[in-house]
Amino acid sequence: MAVKKKQKRYIKTISVSSGKGGVGKTNFVASLAVAFRRLGKNVMVFDADLGLSNIDVLLQLAPKYNILHLLKGEKELKDIIIEGPMGIKILPASSGVQELTAIDEFQRIRILDAFDAYDEDIDILLIDTSAGISENVAFFCIAAQEIIIITSPEPTAITDAYALIKVLFTRYQEKTFNIIVNYAKDSEEALETFRRLSLAAERFLSVSLNYLGYIPYDDAVRKAVTSQRAFIELYPNSAASKNIVKIAKKLLEPSDNVKGTLQFFIGNLLSKGTPRRQTAHAYSE
How far does the chain reach from its first CA to its final CA, in angstroms? Predict the structure, then answer.
């Protein structure tokens, strides 16, 4: 009797990155995951800042195992995944492991095999990358179906977001970027921040950016971080929570993008080769 080949599952893969730290990226990812769950989607969050775990700390979780145990061949994917709020699946990173800041081809193959053998249903894979323009950030961005770049109205955040977009465009020909403005005092400031970033991208890179929305500066967010909870979970009626639900709904709208399986996402990591390390000229424009 012929063995039926396992069907590849459709999954929306979304990488979330920022040019610099301190713009609320991981906090955004945690609440976006909860928003997707409330919209009926099965969600996994992949903490792709592999050497410095963040999402488990933010959500007050204590994983027994992490990505390092997977890469060493000591555990399978199902053994290291932990459950977060509302049943979100979380793939935790390791903490303080410098060699994981740039994974090699063998490690990428191990991740591919692990995901290929994973049988539980996932509708959305959220990849919380590290900040900046490291090799790992590039790998996870170019493999994902959707790329979200988070910035804030702070000038350095805008400059560094532009630097990340420039690297992904000039070296990997990525042309589609979704922009989130965090910590904006109102919609006008958010739109002005996006306008400044968009003008630079169009002028120097010929890249059009998609304004996905903004998260207002909200005291509820600060309180939730102190409580180690996702702000949408703790303060569902806050302005920040209402906006993130709108963003989640936008991301669930039909897309022409065909990159849509777990195997495609991880397989892309293998097919792109090892990016050359970026130099300071990425910030020159």
Answer: 62
Give bridge partners of residue 10 from the DSSP assignment. Answer: 261
- Residues 101 and 134: beta-carbon distance below 8 Å: yes
With tokens 């970027």, the residue in question is 177
CA-based radius of gyration for the chain: 18
The CATH code of the domain at 12-271 is: 3.40.50.300
The model's pLDDT over 233-285, given as tens digits with 9 standing for 90+, comes to: 999 999 999 999 999 999 998 776 555 455 556 666 555 544 433 333 333 33
pTM of the model: 0.85
Burial of residue 50, with CB atoms counted within 10 A of its CB: 0-12 exposed, 13-18 middle, 19 or more buried: buried
Distance between CA atoms of residues 44 and 76, nearest Å: 16
What is the side-by-side strand order in the sheet with 82-83?
A: 82-83, 89-91, 43-48, 124-129, 12-18, 146-151, 177-184, 209-216
Summarize pLDDT for 164-188 with one digit per residue, the tens.
999 999 998 898 899 999 999 999 9
The residues spanned by each domain of the chain are 12-271
Residue 72's alpha-carbon distances to 79, 110, 114, 135, 149, in angstroms, are 13, 9, 12, 20, 31
Q: What's the rounded Cα separation, in Å, for the pair 229 and 209?
A: 31
- CA 32 to CA 58: how far, in whole Å? 14
Work out the burial of residue 258: count CB atoms within 10 Å of its CB; fewer than 13 is exposed, 13-18 middle, 19 or more buried. exposed
Summarize pLDDT for 72-125 with one digit per residue, the tens.
888 888 899 999 999 999 998 876 555 566 677 777 777 767 777 777 888 999
Q: Is 95 helix (H, G, I), strand (E, B) or coil?
A: strand
Classified as helix, coil or strand, 190 is helix
Cα 211–Cα 216–Cα 222 angle in degrees, nearest 5? 135
